[in-house]
Amino acid sequence: MLPFEEQNGISEKGEFNNFFKSAFSVDNVIFGFDDGDLKVLLIKRGALPFKGKWALPGDLVFPNEDLDAAAGRILEELTGLRNVYLEQVQAFGAVNRHPLGRVITIAYYSLVTISNFHLMPSSWASKAKWHSISDVGDLAFDHNEILQACFHRLKDRVRARPIGFELLPKKFTLTELQHLYEAILEVDLDKRNFRKKILSMNLLKDLKEMQEGVAHRPARLFSFDQDKYVRLEAEGYNFEI
């Protein structure tokens, strides 16, 4: 096969310049669960383009910076969140997705417990706020498309792996667990069938404790047995909701 240059009639090194005029960015989709509601972290842009619009925490990658390092740096600079595990989802490269030029973005997503983090917007992010997934509205750039892609990834993962437990406090009720799965999967689950299935997995520890300080009848508290899940997974166990 001929070299790229010969295939495309490029004889001078300078003619390659057009292929090196694209920029890279990262956009972070951070999901959290709060009071029965699945939320996503957004920033309000304090700079052009789309000044004043809500957007995902994202920015350009420095020329000498790895993508993963950029994702963590940008998230901390814009929201104050640090030491968050971020997973790549996919790339978005529509030619006109950015009004200032060709920008290819890599989307990352993560699950966090909202109460564990304190938002501290800085740089050109004038605000940082958790928004209900059901009430996001029109975002800057193509961020609605990116959000939906990451939301679909979350749905796929939560059915096949117990990652949803990362959004709950260490001690939780079966009702809270059911509400979490209902919020992510956007379905109503039968209470009796859900509890029967989740308890049959033998991945929950009954803490022999009850809720305190609630207006309704206190419910039993559970925790997720991470060590047991790791052992079972090594033996070929398949988690499925």
Secondary structure topology:
Blueprint: H1 4-7, E1 23-34, E2 37-45, E3 54-55, E4 58-60, H2 67-79, E5 87-92, E6 103-112, E7 125-132, H3 143-160, H4 174-185, H5 191-200, E8 204-210, E9 220-224, H6 226-234
Give the gist of this structure:
This protein is α+β, with helices and mostly antiparallel strands. Helices cover 27% and strands 26% of the residues. It has six helices and nine strands; from the N terminus they run αββββαβββαααββα.
Structure description:
With 241 residues, this protein is α+β, with helices and mostly antiparallel strands. The protein has 6 helices and 9 strands. The strands form 2 sheets. Strands 1, 2, 3, 4, 5, 6 and 7 form a 7-stranded mixed beta sheet that branches. The protein has a two-stranded antiparallel ribbon with strand order 8-9. A hairpin with an 8-residue loop joins strand 2 and strand 3 (54-55). The mean pLDDT is 90.
What is the share of helical residues? 25-40%
Supply the helix-strand structural class: alpha+beta
| DSSP summary: helix tally | 6
Tell me about the biggest sheet? 7 strands, mixed
Number of E-type strands: 9
Low-pLDDT sequence parts: none
Can you give the mean pLDDT?
90
Q: What overall form do the CA principal axes indicate?
A: elongated
Radius of gyration: 22 Å
Q: Report the portion of residues in β strands.
A: 25-35%
